[in-house]
Request: fold
Amino acid sequence: MIQNFEQTDRRILKFPAVPPCEAISPETLLNSLINLSQNICNYKSELFSTQRKNARQTIRQIGLLLLFFEETRDLRLTLTDSVVLCFSELHLAFQKVRFLLEDCTREGAKLWILIKCKAVSTQFRLLIRAIATALDVLPLGLIDVGVEVKELVELAGKQARNAKVEVDPEDEWALQQVFSVLDHFEKGIEPDSSLMKRVLDHLEIRNWNDCNKEIKFLEEQIGFQYSDCDEREAPFLSSLLGLMNYCRGVIFETWNHRNNKSDARHSIEALSCINPEDFRCPISLELMTDPVTVSTGQTYDRSSIQRWLKAGNMTCPKTGERLASSDLVPNTTLRKLIQQFCTDVGVCASNSGSQSRDIARTISPGSPAAAEEMKFLSRFLARRLVFGSSEQKTKAAYEIRFLAKSNIFNRSCLIEAGTVLPLINLLSSSFERYAQEIAISALLKLSKHPCGKKEIIESGGLKPILAVLQRGLSLEAKQMAAAIIFYLASVKAYRKLIGETPEVVPTLVELIKDGTTCGKKNGVVAIFGLLLHSGNHQMVIASGTIPLLMDIFSSSDNDELIADSLAVLAAIAESVDGTLAILQTSALSTIPRILRSSPSRTAREYSVTVLLSLCKNGGAEAISILAKDQSLMSSLYLLLTDGSSYGSSKARALIKLLHKFHEASSSRMIASAGPCERPVHVW
Reply:
């Protein structure tokens, strides 16, 4: 068997080399050795930021052997079993060399290879010795190649035997500097950035993009640690990640934002009100996969609350009450609802909490050094937002957006450092489209944190955010402003405050009308959040929300948007005024159609909720129209068996109501017919 060398999923410094099988033909083995050697020799043109000497001498030795392999192939020589055995050993060693060189030049892995420089040097030493051993036992006299070629093989063997494989002194120096910098951070001392700049220059990390590649690699490695349930190196990796975040924000002042302009738009979030807040863990803010209830009655994702308790906290994270015990009771009903929701929207329940890593573990810093690095960086970015140039302010906002994207501890540090108010000021003073998008995106990330919501409101951020929602320089900025409104509306007191601003709902309605699918969803969900305060219902109705929702039902093929819109309609229909407004539309014919045809169970359940409210608040006229729909009852009975407990209860209530109407109608018909006359028979 010959190894495929184009793997992309191999973990770094793991060498899954496969020995050639015993039945392999000598010709196939030789050709594979040649291809493998050529592949290794191609690394001569690659940049090695570390291990330069070790890599060069290894490549040089294999280059000499490549000439020997090609000569053997060209002469079509017959290879004895002993030669084939030696070639097999060389093939196995070359595979590992190929993997090692690939790792030494892997994008984003420069710092990690430096950290592992002793282990990497040891690996080079072992592989060169393996090559030397194979050449020592190679019966070169049995291979009829030219004298010069044999001399090259002997030279390669001699070099392999005498090779001095050790850590480069410059690599050793750089390694010591990294440890010194981390030690300074751990002690709460900000190190001299010029020293770290010298290390980065040694590693050929010369700009913002190079540094960002290192960050992405370290994040990936931390993810691997947790997914493999082997977290031994996770704290140290977290320290390195914090260091590179610090370097990206502090050392690399210049950044090519033209290459990153699409990032803000690619990160625009499409929210959903059918993923209600009680589906999200209050700690991680992500969809729960294993919900459990604590003694205060609050529900959390098991992994999140276990980390909270493991950190020594014996209070409820949401209420602050002291926990009577650390017992965790599985919430099986909620778990089933979440699993069904994931099925409806096409999300894998086991992975829904995070795309690349579990955000729950970011509640606390990965290490003491990582905590201090983040605090120093947060204070630096806050100063940049206040005192920097326009370019520096935009760059600081860009860094904040990156840092707060999926890390709860980072969010708390940035908020505590005072970044919210200057971000709001940047939002108000931005006359350039990109700067406004970055500022509103950064605020969106921070608004997910409870303290972020409070800071935004108390810093007077609502008015500037509404200004972006109304007159934003791009549709993307408006969509992100709507998303912030949704997160702010998750706080009970803020729903009323936002609703008291008369232009909010009409502006959201305009976004629903003219926005992209993402914009429509964010507008719909923001309105859903505001409807949780009963005082906002009249404004939502008066702003023309209902006709727009009906248009979505007839024009959109996005199941999630339709389900979101039905959730809003269900909230409106809870009041008599809302029901009367809905009955002015074609809802009684449109919603049963959705109930019959929608592939989303959530949409079908909200459809039943709307119809039930229309019947209860709309009286006999609404019920009579639905009673004429002969297919409605079968859809309701289907939901009784396939629906959640919530959906089944709504379907059951509507079935009872329709049955009562049919019975009452039958009674009235009998009563109106009067007493039956019996026929008289004449004889």
